[in-house]
Amino acid sequence: HKLLKITLPKSWKNGPTSRILQQFVESYNANETLGVANPLSESELHLAIRKPVNETSDETVLVDIPSNAITIEVIPDRSDLFVMHGPSQTLEDISLIANKETERIKALQESTVACVHFGCKNRFPKGGPYPDCVHHVAPPVFHETAKFWSCCPTKKAYDWDDFQQLPGCQTGTCTNVKDDDKSDEKQFFGGSDLREALGKATKLKSIDDFNTSEAAGGSEAAPVLDRLRLVMKEMGIENELFDQVLNGIQQQKGLSDMDSPEALEEVKAELGSKLKVAMKSIAADQLRIK
To answer: Which pTM does this prediction carry?
Structure first.
């Protein structure tokens, strides 16, 4: 392995990333020991950078860097870069591959249907044949950081990938037709469902409740969160998912009493911060598209 630390000239920051790879290869090949014994070819290498799997994960993966991307746009300051085997790809190459994959998935979805059994990931041709499947008989539960199937409450996971690997508890044949008596069944449960089961369901506050609370000097946070919950539902975001996010913030902050004004204010502020970051990300993507 060879480690090369370089400070980029200002002119490089607005240039293509291929310059960095070229500099590394020239430095490596100039080494009397490494370069002579095993010279590198720039055309057979590419750069990669570590990035989180998602915004909330500590797990990282190596992501290829396009050779014609602008350095300052794709490589943060003081980043560690990795030189990988395999030719570089341009932004156009990567976009073409992504488009082909999107078309492949779309074609697969148009020609197949998904099994409606809980936990079954099978897809099969419309009209059959219908494969065997191992599934669950009841919806999943997402409560705070725990994820489990309500029919198998003793088998819990705290990571999405681990949850996906939880084995089903019943075998059968795949189908794309829901039973009539299960057509209105919830697809997953959240914290509100568990509290309701325990007789602790919280009544959603109306605007009148909000005004009454304000007149009495109560906390503004609870009505704000309740109204946001309603708005999110109108936008297609399930109440269960909204509750899961709130429960997750409660867990992260170590808040034991969610009925206290202080705890509600803290949850409101944290959720507002996360939504602001998401909106800024969308705005930045829109500017890049232009």
So the answer is: 0.44
